Amino acid sequence: MADKNNAAKAQPLTAVKGMNDILPPVSAEWEWLEEKVRSLMARYAYRNLRTPIVEPTSLFVRSLGEVTDIVEKEMYSFEDRLNGEQLTLRPENTAGVVRAVVEHSLLYDGGKRLYYMGPMFRHERPQRGRYRQFHQIGAEALGFAGPDVDAEIILLAAALWRELGLSDVRLEINSLGQPDERRQHRAELIAYLERHADQLDEDARRRLHANPLRVLDTKNPAMQQLVEGAPRLLDFLGESSMAHFRGVTDALDANSIAYRINPRLVRGLDYYNLTVFEFVTDSLGAQGTICAGGRYDYLIGQIGGKQAPAVGWALGVERVLELVREQGAAIAQPAPDAYAIVPDASAMPQVLRALQALRAAGVGVQMHAASAEGLGSMKSQFKKADASGARHALIFGADELAAGELTVKALRDGSGAQQRQSLDAVEALARQLKA
């Protein structure tokens, strides 16, 4: 019986379906993207904010709307066994950012430009570019009402595509106006859809009175002609909303940012008003939207704060990296500056002291580690040095160590040149290995 129990415990475990491990060397691509983002955000004066992965379920019901796919079908929600609180793994992060801004009174001294990176969770059918644990990078500008900030945040995304070497990305933009304008459009839209009720699919019939604007966001090919003939929200916008929209497009024009006005672009979340936009590509098939966002001037009030304007976007990390791979951008794999060759295990304490000094001076060094059989031959160590990608081998032979030295051998320039260096001249050696 004990043997059976031990065998049962030894069964391998696998990741949850749709939630993937990110392993080297692929993880280097993620780090490359994240570093590009951090550098760009700093240039635009956006500061990093980190929120919990778990939030109160009511946060998303209140912000996203009850009649949305995310709330109705996709959220990972559960009851806290200790206190009965209803909790949810975050399906998106704008609501969490706003909750944090309200809770910590971040707007007390003026607007804030913030960005975030991290995992989100939705129970969807896993497919290319869409997973149940997926990752987003987002930018949010809170406390700014003008169209100039709408344009700036779009320019920020466009600058990121240039940084990543992407070209097959286009911008689609629309305005959803203000609530009173939406109400007028809503009444006309419901009347139109009711006249064509026989053409509505099940989702559209369910949303007809609860959230008719979402009907325009349908992906059902059989309904596209019906959607094209529906009343356009742009035609219901007043002068103030149109002036805001012109302010955005004028700024994009001034910066030579190409865009298409798409009157059917409504986004899938209830909290948007005025400007909405998407960056899309034809290179990823059905998962063509890589970045999307818009203005959400009423969300801060809905979550319990003093009403303040805001605008933001989020991009899908998996989709962006897939597009980088599709377009052939080269992502350099990290490699150490040097690989330490150690012929004799007894020298390891002295070798480790030298390597620590080099690392402290900014040199990346991979140490050859012993196996159960020992350090292995010099030949096998050099093979591993070559496979590591290091530009230099550091040879800690007995003769060298006796003289307080090591041998530096070039591995990448084809020369194989070798020279002795003093172990005490750490800064000079570091400069040589980093050059």
UniProtKB/TrEMBL annotation:
GO molecular function (one): histidine-tRNA ligase activity
GO BP annotations listed: histidyl-tRNA aminoacylation
Binding sites annotated in the UniProt record for L-histidine: 92-94, 122, 136, 140, 267, 271-272
Subcellular location: Cytoplasm
EC assignment: 6.1.1.21
Location of the Aminoacyl-transfer RNA synthetases class-II family profile domain: 33-343
NCBIfam families per the UniProt record, alphabetical: hisS
Protein name: Histidine--tRNA ligase
Species of the source: Ramlibacter aurantiacus
Higher taxonomy: Bacteria, Pseudomonadati, Pseudomonadota, Betaproteobacteria, Burkholderiales
